[in-house]
Amino acid sequence: MSGFDRVWLALREPVDILARDAGLLAAAAQSLESVSAPTVLDIGCGTGSTFRALSPRLGKPAHFRLFDHDHRLLDEARRWHGDTVDLIQGDLNDIGALPLAEVSLVTASALFDLCSEQFIRRFVAHVMQRGASLYAALNYDGRMRWSKPHPLDEAVLASFNAHQLSDKGFGYSLGPQAWETLADCLRENGYTVRTAESPWTMAADHRELQRLFLDGVVRAVYEYGQLDESEIRDWADFRRKMVDREGSLCQVGHQDILAIR
Ligand SMILES: C[S@@+](CC[C@H](N)C(=O)[O-])C[C@H]1O[C@@H](n2cnc3c(N)ncnc32)[C@H](O)[C@@H]1O
């Protein structure tokens, strides 16, 4: 799969922090209160954004394991956090090798929308078997809205969402449907599940983030190949002009999930 750029992740983080549902984040922290020496495993950790969101909310110290396959992102996490966290490089597809010993809470952000149904079911079965809880934030839910509409917005979104269903390294991805499948699967496996909307709001002053986001949307829509190139170019020119000159607001739907046994 294509790698995630640390510049992109850094630009996202302030928007992610505001988007995360505060109630579920607090409840995830609260779930560790009764554990004497809690260990948290953050999967697909990137540079450690979930660690930075969750750790200040904990009532007691917890040990964090940050897990990712990308050594450049783990290097960046090391620059941020030194040896206050364990950094582990590995492939999530090898679910049986996940370092789950003593883990009370598994966390993830912006991860499950990359995953296939088969991966989600295997993952839940494995986590469930160990009894850990799960806090999975910022799962893209297929919605995108701009403050200034364009006639092609719906067509672009349909192509983008269809492109999300390609293989992102876990088999054919469920994309915008992944959060519901994950929540259902957790319920079927005996978890009490809470979900909450966590929409991303990119304001006019998030110019660089909006530019990179648009580049990603345009690339996906070209690749999907359902719209004429001239239509895509018109839409992209309009959107880029809005971002650069007039300022526009863009909302991208996400869902947070907290599952506790
Ligand atoms: C969208 S990024 C989210 C990063 C971080 N959680 C955040 O919110 O900033 C997805 C992350 O999953 C990691 N990832 C993707 N596929 C993986 C795999 N098969 N094994 C381990 N990590 C993976 C990527 O390297 C990346 O860090």
TrEMBL record:
Q: Where is the Methyltransferase domain?
A: 40-127
| Name this polypeptide is given | Methyltransferase domain-containing protein
Source domain of life: Bacteria
InterPro entries recorded for this chain?
Methyltransf_25, SAM-dependent_MTases_sf
Pfam families for the chain? Methyltransf_25
Q: Which organism is it from?
A: Neorhizobium galegae bv. officinalis
